[in-house]
Specification:
The structure is a single chain. With about 180 residues, this protein is mainly alpha-helical. The protein folds into two domains: about 90 residues, Orthogonal Bundle (Rna Polymerase Sigma Factor, Chain: A), CATH 1.10.1740; about 70 residues, Orthogonal Bundle (Arc Repressor Mutant, subunit A). About 70% of the residues lie in helices and about 0% in strands. The chain has nine helices and no strands. Helix 2 packs antiparallel against helix 3, helix 4 packs across helix 8 and helix 7 crosses helix 8. The protein is globular, with a radius of gyration of 19 Å. It starts with 6 loop residues before the first helix and ends with a helix. The model has no long low-confidence stretch (mean pLDDT about 80).
Amino acid sequence: MTHALTDDVLSARAREPELFDLVYRSYASQVLGYLTARGVEDPEAVMQEVFLAVLPRLATVTGGLAGLRTFVFSVAHARIVDDHRRRRRAPVELPFEPDLDGREESSAEDEAMEQISPREVHNLLGVLPDDQREVLTLRLVAGLTVEQAAEVMGKSGGAVKQLQRRALIRLREQSAVKEYVMP
């Protein structure tokens, strides 16, 4: 199948199973990145939950592709909240067992890949307050517009812009402090 997900395809195929495949291929990597950046314990499993929740409601989505994108990330946001609440209620702590640790020395390639990993992005975002971290994750990782991020977060577009500006300033200040301390 060579169709691309467009407003016309969305409306013409609202009830066809192929539409789910197009939606999944169009948004899966962005949803996975969003879930990973927000610290979800098992982002792949939660991503599947997101799309399983989206599938039966595809025919009811309004607003074309922009509405669909907002809907998908609203569901993802709700799953993130569920994941964080679940972990707070029943934290899982496993003891480290050195005898079961089969890791070996990492290669230069592995070390380079670790430097650009989603974990690094997660750590960088970790210095931000929750609202600022959420805005940057929705805007930069998920690729949502200001209006879409505002709808997901239940805030105004102006509030999202202000949170994004403050977050970027804070990250810039953090970077300047590190450069000053580490020659």
